[in-house]
Amino acid sequence: MTDMAPATLILGAMACLLLAVALWMFARAHRKEQARSVQSHLQRSLDILPSQTAIGGMQSMPGVQQAASASAVSSSTPHGTWSRLHSLLQRHLGIDAWGIAPRMLALLAAGGLLLAVLAALQGGALLGLLALAAYGLLCGFGIWRRLSKRREKLLQQLPGFLDNMVRLITIGNSPHAAFQMAVNNVPAPLGDALQQAAASLSALPDLGQAMGQLERNWRLPEFGLLAAVFRMSVRYGGRADLVLERVSAYIRDRQSAERELHALSAEIRLSAWVLALLPIVVGTLIMVLNQGYFMRMWQDASGRKMVLAAAALEALGAFLLYRLARLK
């Protein structure tokens, strides 16, 4: 027990540090929208003013001067650090598309650290790291499933939104104006994504660029297709309503084909789920119902190697079953 004390203390210190970071991120998250509105106000003010007047009259405009000072202060405060961290996570992970509040992310992180500390107290630092890795994989799987469901629901709502835009363009509105009018009363998750695009349009009125940003956030090629349509409409003109109507029909046809393939492959996917989850469920029941048996096996050197090898083989088998059952 004395040999495990230093590792346990190190894990406890790391857990407290990461928990403090998670709570700090949650405390600073609610200020993100306020800083974003200040920056968008500054950008609109700079776009509206002529270039010469903007350079000469910046000191006579207290609103712009206050916004600039607020933006400069925010870049040097902890909130600026959180904004840069959020931008990094958004660029690499698309965190805004998850639909999870910062409070829930902080609670998930705190729960994982608590589980790792408890496991380290029972079986050492290696068992704590293994429990933390298993918890991270479980949370990642849950986030992936949630994101997949949100993307599927968004694609189901997208053709109806495009039909509304086609009707508004047909009666004489521009694509930009039709987008602004059709965004209202769109349910989530499509409404949340389009509200982000509408907010970016207030600073830079480029619909193609706004849809391109949505493609990077949500990792959906349909948004990239719409961005190309809007860029072509702005650059070369033409009947954007006809192109949007064909895009809507294409999305509906593809969704129909995917539903048919989903129904035909239901047996294969169910078999893959059962084969992947059965060893995990059986191992978890053994650890919960008979802890002494598992701890005796874990404290033995050969038994520990067998447990780690079984975990690695289970991860490899689950990945292979996923690749076999994944039909596109």
Protein model, in words:
The chain has 328 residues and is mainly α. Helix 4 crosses helix 5 (78-93). It is built from 15 helices and no strands. The chain has helices spanning 4-29, 32-48, 51-56, 62-76, 78-93, 102-123, 125-170, 175-182, 190-203, 207-218, 221-236, 240-264, 266-289, 291-299, 301-325. The protein is elongated. Residues 44-76 have low confidence and may be disordered. It is found in: Cell membrane. This is Type II secretion system F family protein. Residues 161-287 form the Type II secretion system protein GspF domain. It is a multi-pass membrane protein. Pfam families: T2SSF (PF00482).
Structure, briefly:
The protein is an all-alpha fold and about 325 residues long. The chain is about 85% helix and about 0% strand.
Written as H for each helix and E for each strand, in order along the chain, the element string is: HHHHHHHHHHHHHHH
Major pleated sheet: none
The tally of helices reads 15
Question: What's the rounded overall pLDDT mean?
Answer: 77
Helicity level, as a percent range?
over 70%
In whole angstroms, the N-to-C terminal distance is: 52 Å
Oligomer kind: single chain
Residue runs with pLDDT of under 50 for 5 or more positions: 44-76
Question: How would the global form be characterised?
Answer: elongated
Based on helices, strands and strand pairing, what is the structural class? mainly alpha
Tell me the fraction of residues in β-strands, as a range.
under 5%
Q: How many distinct beta strands?
A: 0
Provide the gyration radius in Å: 26 Å
